Structure formats: structure tokens, C-alpha cells
Amino acid sequence: MPATTFPAGLIRPWYPAGKTAHTRADCPDLLRAAAKPQEGPGWLNPRQGPVCGTCMPSWDAVCHTCGWSLAEGRRDGSHISEDDAKKWMAEHECEPEVGLVPPKNATNGTGQSPNQLSLFDIKDAA
After folding, report:
1. What is the pTM of this model?
2. Structural domain boundaries of the chain?
3. CB-hemisphere CA count at 13 Å for 126?
4. What is the tens place of the pLDDT at every residue in 86-106?
5. How far apart are CA 44 and CA 33, in angstroms?
6. Which residues on adjacent β-strands are paired with residue 25?
7. For site-directed labelling of 91, which of 36, 51, 72, 97 has its Cα 20 to 30 A away?
8. What is the Cα–Cα distance from 87 to 15, expressed in whole angstroms?
């Protein structure tokens, strides 16, 4: 069963394995930790703990001016939500262009993010 996302960003079903949460019962990392995965109680909040990157690919935000990215800044491999990436884009000081990078399975078929905005667009929208 694919994961369902609640509007507040909460996810269900989810499967705990040690300190990592998974959104797919067939995740190879989960199956290595638990032969028979059990569904976790309630809803998973991906902001409150590490979420398996195999189960839930991360977003990223990349500055095309300085070459820096949110993922490089974190360096811990923690999950990056779309909201996290948009916040980083809005706060990054480099001009003129910062682009949002969706998970690899969320592109518009051209290999580019449908959500790429220049920093000017973001600041004008605020």
C-alpha cells in the first residue's frame, strides 16, 4: 500500500525500524532491520526524526550562482521536505537564481523541476 500524505505533512502507513521511519513495507533497508515489519501507531511526522531516503526521497534547493545546496549544508543526510527546500530558497542570499529540486520521481518529464523559480520571483511573491 503506498503512503498517504495528510495535508499537514503527516504520513500513513509508516514502519519503525530502530531510529529510522519507513513509508514502504517492502523497503530493503526496513526488511534488513525487521523481517516482518509492523505498522507504526498514528501518523508519521517526517520533521521529527530520520525518514528513510529510499522510502521517501528528499527535495533539495540549489543556488545556481554559488553552487551551494541545502543538502550540502545539512551534511547529515536527513530528509528534506518541499517546505524545507522552499524556506531555504527564500532565505538564501545569493542572487539571482535559486532552484527547487524535487525528488527524482517528481520531475515534469523534462528532467527539470516544474517549481524552479528565480530568487526575484520568490521575493516578489513574499
Report:
1. 0.49
2. 4-48, 60-125
3. 12
4. 898 888 887 666 778 888 765
5. 19
6. none
7. 51
8. 28
